[in-house]
Amino acid sequence: MSTVLALPRVSETERRPAAGAKAPTDVGLMARMAAGDRAALQVFYTRHHVRVFRFVLRILGDRTQAEDVISEVFIDAWRQAGQFEGRSAVSTWLLAIARHKAYAVLRRRPTESIDDERAAEIEDDGETPDVTLEKQNRAVILRRCLDALPSTHREIIDLVYYHERSVADVAKVFGIPENTVKTRLFYARKKLAGMLAAAGVDRDWL
Description:
Layout: H1 12-15, H2 26-34, H3 38-60, H4 63-80, H5 90-108, H6 131-148, H7 151-162, H8 167-174, H9 178-198
Helix pairs in contact: 2-3, 3-4, 3-5, 4-5, 5-8, 7-9, 8-9
């Protein structure tokens, strides 16, 4: 059974901003969390947990483990809110915590060899005159190709295209130089394009 994040119970009145009030910024929520504001934690979790969960799930490939990691991530965010120094966006800081914890889980798994040739096993689901079905098939192929990428390439594609992170943000999440991110992104896109072509999908479709 997965561990559920023990978020504080807050009423709808506490959770919603007053009429006409602006939504709190992430930095503002962090400051309130550092002061022990439980309603701020609820808003923070609601705002970020879906994207962070998808990022962790992409790394682990296991929904139950991803749920456990997400719980730990937001508990850490609550405990470390007062230590946030604003050197990056709050969401980038959160993704860095999530990546660190996800890899801690991977290190505890039995060693598995990474098969970079899995793309060869990807089959085209077949063409169809129905445009909707064709798009669905392409989406399935794209997900399979992404899953077949080496982990570092897969994560960079995920952060840049799905989380819309800048190269600078990705460098902070990975803890590596920006030029290294650019190099990995170049090779990730090249490898992904080749895999899609082999599966019968035009790279320009992306």
